[in-house]
């Protein structure tokens, strides 16, 4: 655990800041278990080992727009889209779940009665689901408009079904088990072919050969990947092995085939992803063969799952990274899609801060940690590390009750209230400080309608609590000493059940802004308890919201890196925002690949907007000219050794600092103090299980 | 005997065998490799050199089988010609004059009458691949000026160009890009690898390329040891490649097997790697090949591979990766520290070979006899490593003893020295290590010599070192209770005023030892090791030292760094004469009084041969080579020559060989080079050269006798039929190679005509004469005197008329012409 390191940071034109460089947020993202790509909506569903399911919108700059909190007893083993945009998952608890993508809730769960489920796949038409269970049964479910219905069992196999694949015509399926692959006829449900996989591994016979993945191609070829490191091609009609590629010394764990069936991708336990392509043997013949082409080593640990979108290879694994590797030959223009993406951190805030008491609340899957920042009396110049006069204190470790993961949490600006929510309950606590001691008092009897919250926010004066529930309604609760009172509920607009996931309240407490996934930002008048206005909808989802003090300008950041400023009293975009839109952002600004997750303001300088993403921290000075594409966006120049004239000429509105990364949270504690929460990747890797040892040449 | 011919400096074998890829004959019986100005034909089974194809006047740069006739071989050379050879008989068939310097040659099966060559454009580093149309004219020398351009800016090395499946495309690599030219589409695609300064890509550059014989797949080798397999390269966007990475250093060459099922690669690791099915995990190795693999080639029959190595070696390898034959030339890739020596037993030239080895090279057969591993450590090819070097070697006691010195100097102060003494073992016909002395001296050993006198009882060795001492080592009894043995021990340590000992030399009878201490020469009695006298000329450090021989044994020669050659009289202990000569090499002839000295000045090297008794040289040849001569040696002749001319008498009993700085081995010869290295081409040309195998002796003689009997019997019974052997037309028919004969239908009438009984008996006498003449004039150089028989040229119209009416003699003429005539017009009929 790292201690708090106050740093001195000089941002040109902004003066010096004392920075609390926090590295004790011990966050480790759970490993990725499954990914499922939906071609229709261009969305990617990702499930993690703790049961969390995240939905990424690949069209919206890979923004993580939705997430379903995990559950201790639910470990997802399979994830699939069916019937257009319905998302199903199955796991080792033997249940099949359907997710409600509007309300961000679980629609229902259904036991398949076959023991733990290892694999699940939707039929090519999307009308049926097939699950492979621990007891060797393959069960067919029909998808009805609001539920799924068990249809029948296929011939039972003698060991667990680890992988399944439909023939694109939907007439046959291939099922990978331990030591063999079976081919079933869907009509009769009987196994018509059994293909035994070689156990030999580099000349040594292993105990078992697990078929981790199968893929059925339309010409009847079955591709299998197994624990002996082989990728094998079988003829399903005759049940014979056609070709075998030994590609790894460890397990090959996943396979995904492109829709055109001209390329597929496999992931190995060594962290390598191999791309196979169907190339013609000679230029003038129709004969084609599968050739292993490029290996990609973007992972350090097991690649548990891969997906093949029309333009990219997507892989995820134990090392918690989601890697999206575009296929250069499929990318037409050089834009976002042509760059390699590595998504590690969630696109939402896990840290909240009490400015008054200098407290940081860290949210983990099953507990919360409350820390008091250290302090220093020393001063220094740019880049100095100041000695601590008082170390940071770990004040509180609050464990949740029950198996559910925490969805959101918040600490009030005064530091005396703390709230968090799981999928079924909202918890509110009162914190009492007596010198160095802290006591916690749970406020019981939360109202019944407060079942689950997607976002919790305290007002600046800590007298009100705003809760965005997953039904689309917003609740306002007045906080009294030791109790509370429900003030009002804003019901969702008629006809929409879209959940609100971002909230912002103005410092004077009069305005509340709330944003959902796609519709615009709604601004409510808290005093009069009515909807004030709706900011015009924009194509890209909102990633961060904040209302400026005094002016009550609402600043909105979108996933395509656009930033808007909207004046709430005037119900229109501000002059500055119009200027920005007219001139456009700098191309480098638009090419950043992580969304802005937090916006705040300087209490004394109304023209400044502070915002950050995972790799940079930026202060926008609205009084300075905007940069055009010819100016240097990131000013690497040290502020002293250039003449004033030059500095004035090159000065522009964006002051960017890339010192702190990866940055999970950054805010202004007071005029001269910043707090930055970093989470170095090395620290995460150090907490992961060791990867498969590979001999490195020359060692 | 040839007389009064001037003495010329000639190259003497030892040329590179590994300059270009070797080529297999279609039946894998022969392997061809370029060797200097020649092409050598080796048998793959016996490793013997069968033919030397000579005729090029400059370095041969490429050879390929003629794709339309697998019994012929094309070769190209820097002299601007392409020659077509019949390699079985070693005959030059045709010469095509192209005019440009040709750097590489490629043939493609479907382009029958044209070949591809690499030529040099005006700029020194710009090379072009061009298609040369080879015109079909009957004459021996044909101008082939019809060049059509294919690819520009290519690499000079033929390894960087490869022709694809059925010659549909050609791939060329250079620096960081791969260009593919499609002959049908006439388009070039170019694929570039990132070459940014960043370290990861800095070694991305291409080193070699190969094309799959059956599929559209190009394999390229890279500096960083990667092999990339390119596919889909007919589409600029959809192209893709696979990496195979095993080599840690650059990939020197790549080759696909005939079926394309496996890919062979080699590099500095001295390992041949076979990649099966182009799969990274499925590979086989043939390790410990001794030196880095420079070229790989595959026989058209698919049963053999062959690798050329940097130590001038060709290895023939079976399909199952078993080495079947090794053709080893003179190893020349390292600096020669031991100098040139002659092994008294085998008369082989001995010098540094592979790292840590001493090679025994036969000058007569231009072939390495064997390698003696001196250092006896596995050689690791790594440029950072400081290797143990074999610095000195000497033979003693008529080849019964060999002394070697090896050293390794990591830093200035850390010198590792080892002296080894090897005894010749008659049983194994090789040297066996007898004594190993570590650190025989505290500093570098500068000289090593045996006492080679016949009368000396105990073998004696003297070493001189920079540490200021010379040591005398003698063979003593080293027996113990386990075995009888002999070993070498130090007998005497001498020094002179703390000067560094720089050289040592025994007199011919072994009674005196001369040791040079920088500028001073000291003479020691070898019986008592007493210092007899000293000579000092104050003319710089002594470089070489040698005693005179036979009648001149009272003289001692020495040359100094300041360029003074001195001769001291040992009886008078005075300087006899001195001459100003910057001597680089001073070698006494073991069979005469002569001493050869090679001097060097900026203009070149000059040779002086003299007797120590007189300061006037016997023979001077100025400017024997432009380079500095590093080493020289007299090699005794097996059969003494007899030059009557006084100037050349020094060459009667020995031959002088010398090695220049660029490591070419040269010698003096009076015969023209062609004569001297007369290959077997002439003798093999005649049909008499059929091998006289044991079978021949048993069966052939038996058959002859039977034939005789039979003939006698027939003679008595039958009308005498013309003996087929005696009819020239049939002779011609049977002895002309099948591939140059006209069609059978054309020959039929001639053949039948020839079988008809001739009315004129006189022709029978003339015919045998003609046959012998024919043999002589096969190379067309001799002009026949008989005008009537002389064939002017191809006036086919006139000839055709003749055919019908002429009798066998004219037909024979006719047929003879066919050997010279180009038959392409037949195809056109």
UniProtKB/TrEMBL annotation, chain A:
* Keywords linked to the UniProt accession: Chromosome, Isopeptide bond, Nucleus, Phosphoprotein, Repeat, Ribosome biogenesis, rRNA processing, Transcription, Transcription regulation, Ubl conjugation, WD repeat
Question: Is the keyword Coiled coil in the record?
Answer: no
Q: A GO molecular function for this record?
A: RNA binding
Record flagged with keyword Transmembrane helix: no
Please classify the protein's predominant subcellular localization into one broad category.
nucleus
Q: Name one GO cellular component term.
A: chromosome
| Domain of life (superkingdom) | Eukaryota
Which SUPFAM superfamilies does its entry note?
DPP6 N-terminal domain-like (SSF82171), WD40 repeat-like (SSF50978)
Localisation: Chromosome; Nucleus, Nucleolus
Name the SMART domains for this protein: WD40
GO biological process terms, alphabetically, are:
maturation of SSU-rRNA from tricistronic rRNA transcript (SSU-rRNA, 5.8S rRNA, LSU-rRNA)
Question: What is known about its subunit structure?
Answer: Interacts with HIVEP1 Interacts with NOL11. Part of the small subunit (SSU) processome, composed of more than 70 proteins and the RNA chaperone small nucleolar RNA (snoRNA) U3. May be a component of the proposed t-UTP subcomplex of the ribosomal small subunit (SSU) processome containing at least UTP4, WDR43, HEATR1, UTP15, WDR75.
Functionally, this protein is described as follows:
Ribosome biogenesis factor. Involved in nucleolar processing of pre-18S ribosomal RNA. Part of the small subunit (SSU) processome, first precursor of the small eukaryotic ribosomal subunit. During the assembly of the SSU processome in the nucleolus, many ribosome biogenesis factors, an RNA chaperone and ribosomal proteins associate with the nascent pre-rRNA and work in concert to generate RNA folding, modifications, rearrangements and cleavage as well as targeted d Involved in SSU pre-rRNA processing at sites A', A0, 1 and 2b.
Please report the name of this protein according to its UniProt entry: U3 small nucleolar RNA-associated protein 4 homolog
TrEMBL record, chain B:
Give the UniProt subcellular location, in the record's own words.
Nucleus, Nucleolus
Q: Name one GO cellular component term.
A: small-subunit processome
Q: Name one GO biological process term.
A: positive regulation of rRNA processing
- Acidic residues composition bias: residue spans: 766-786
Extract the GO molecular function terms from the UniProt entry: RNA binding
Q: Looking at the keywords, is Transport present?
A: no
Location (main, coarse): nucleus
- Which is one Pfam family of this protein? Beta-prop_WDR75_1st
The WD repeats are at 53-95
Against SMART domains, the record matches this protein to: WD40
Q: What's in the keyword line of the UniProt record?
A: Nucleus, Repeat, Ribosome biogenesis, rRNA processing, Transcription, WD repeat
SUPFAM superfamilies per the record? Tricorn protease domain 2, WD40 repeat-like
Kindly indicate where the leader peptide sits in this chain.
Answer: none
| Domain (WD repeat-containing protein 75 second beta-propeller): residue spans on this chain | 340-663
**Which Gene3D superfamilies does the entry link to?**
YVTN repeat-like/Quinoprotein amine dehydrogenase
The highest taxon in the source lineage is Eukaryota
**Record carries keyword Transferase:** no
The protein, known as = WD repeat-containing protein 75
